Amino acid sequence: MGLKKSQQELWKHSKAKVELLRLYLEQYINILNQTPFIKKVYIYDLFCGEGIYPNGGKGSPIIIVESLKQIRTSQNPATFEVLFNDSDSTKILKLKANIDSLKPLPSTIAQLKFKTENYRSFLSEIVSDLISSEANSRAFIFLDPYRYSDIQFEDIKNLLISRKTEVLLFLPTQFMFRFERKGRPKSLHKFIEELIPENQWPNSHTGIDFIENLTNAFMHKLGHKHFVDSFIITRDVNQFFCLFFFTSHPYGFETMLNAKWLLDEKVRSWMVAS
Questions:
Q1: What are the residue ranges spanned by the domains of the chain?
Q2: In the predicted model, is pLDDT for residue 185 greater than 50?
Q3: Which of 27, 29, 147, 200 has the most crowded Cβ, counting Cβ within 10 A?
Q4: Backbone angles phi, psi at 192, to 5 degrees
Q5: Each residue of 87-96: pLDDT tens digit?
Q6: What is the pLDDT averaged over residues 230-242?
Q7: What is the torsion angle, in degrees rounded to the nearest 10, for the CA atoms of residue 9, residue 10, residue 13 and residue 15?
Q8: Number of other CB atoms surrounding residue 238 within 10 Å
């Protein structure tokens, strides 16, 4: 099966997605590296892809590696462990080659690991590792699934159980909204039913409404101990995609807000330049 256009080119909404990831990670990594009691940081990119789009655009794995290279020196530095996973072994081979073509990342800063597992088959292993991880550790998980049906709400809930984890999830909300009321596929039925009884799901008049309804449902389902934030990305007129951020830490929430403000400024500059 050939690649979809969105997998061949770094479109504007994908550019915004990975730029928010970069801005957040550059702050997140340095904050944790400067925090004396944090000794280990785990970073997971569980649908990582090849790292470089065929048109040369940088994907999330390259953004992660480049962010790690920006770490400021610290008296008591944390160590970082990064896991890149994709069920397609060909993509992992290309990713390794793309990372090897970059300036080497010192092993004293981070250890890179690669897996070719089906996300669903080893998710429980990741959750178990997070729960049993050191008290002085933290974790960040990036989820950019090829299909929203690959993700379930329980995944997010379980990944947050340790209260040492933050999750950034990309969803193609425009496509989900399109079928919300007409021809809704089973995968969307299931996704919504996990969050709220279907007969209680509010009507979404626009794609923005759908994102707000989804954000509210996430917040209600997770409860007051967690923060949920969203960043809406516009691709074309009235076409909206969204990144959802989940954390139990006020500082993590504040860091994401700062990243959003920085990205807002960048997006405005992109629009002026175009």
A1: 5-172+229-235+247-266
A2: yes
A3: 29
A4: -70, -40
A5: 999 999 999 9
A6: 81
A7: 180
A8: 10
